[in-house]
């Protein structure tokens, strides 16, 4: 696949791994969100869910998307690391809008985050990055594995 897959290529990849335009995991998305909120509270932080996160998880939640032989993108808020809620809150403050985790990249241990405006960011030990204005753009960016823009460009 090219470093910048087309929207058509991204949709085909998603479809091949269980997604469809009508996919809706319903109440399971609410359960995933509630579990992540509880995890953040155990870390002493508050993650407040919002419509963009719920919408994304209803449509894409619990998909496993292979990025290469050793790395998958798990579309669930369930994974992270101890202290990640504080890092998410810090990035949200810098961006001036709430964020919620909606995915985790194995191997890289990066988190896919969505904002209240529906923008997507990637939190990684090497920094924070912007992925796009839509789920399709963000997922296509991870599929292509190309250069990511630094999230600093979006700080308020």
What is the radius of gyration computed over CA atoms, rounded to a whole number of angstroms? 14 Å
Give the spatial strand order of the biggest sheet: 1-2-3-4-5-6-7
Overall pLDDT confidence: 94
Overall SS class: alpha+beta
Q: Provide the domain count.
A: 1
Span between N and C termini?
A: 35 Å
Relative helix content? 25-40%
Sequence of secondary-structure elements: HHHEEHEEEEHE
- Number of DSSP helical runs: 5
Q: Which parts are unreliable, with pLDDT below 50 for 5 consecutive residues or more?
A: none
Counted beta strands: 7
Shape: globular
Largest sheet: 7 strands, antiparallel
Strand composition percent:
15-25%
In short:
It is globular, with a radius of gyration of 14 Å. The chain is of the alpha+beta class. 37% of the residues lie in helices and 21% in strands.
Q: What does this protein structure show overall?
A:
The chain has 156 residues and is of the alpha+beta class. It has one domain. 37% of the residues lie in helices and 21% in strands. Strands 1-2-3-4-5-6-7 form a 7-stranded antiparallel sheet. A hairpin with a 4-residue loop joins strand 3 and strand 4.
């Amino acid at each position: 696949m090219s470093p910048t897959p087309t929207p058509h290529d991204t949709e085909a990849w998603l479809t091949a791994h269980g997604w469809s335009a009508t996919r809706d995991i319903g109440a399971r998305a609410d359960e995933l969100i509630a579990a992540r909120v509880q995890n953040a509270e155990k870390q002493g932080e508050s993650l407040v869910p919002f419509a963009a996160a719920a919408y994304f998880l209803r449509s894409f939640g619990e998909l496993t998307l292979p990025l290469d032989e050793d790395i998958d993108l798990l579309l669930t808020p369930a994974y992270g690391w101890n202290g990640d809620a504080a890092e998410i809150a810090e990035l949200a403050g810098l961006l001036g809008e709430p964020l919620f985790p909606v995915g985790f990249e194995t191997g890289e241990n990066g988190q896919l985050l969505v904002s209240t405006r529906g923008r997507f960011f990637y939190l990684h030990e090497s920094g924070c990055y912007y992925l796009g204005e839509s789920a399709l753009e963000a997922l296509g960016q991870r599929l292509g594995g190309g250069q990511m823009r630094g999230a600093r460009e979006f700080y308020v």
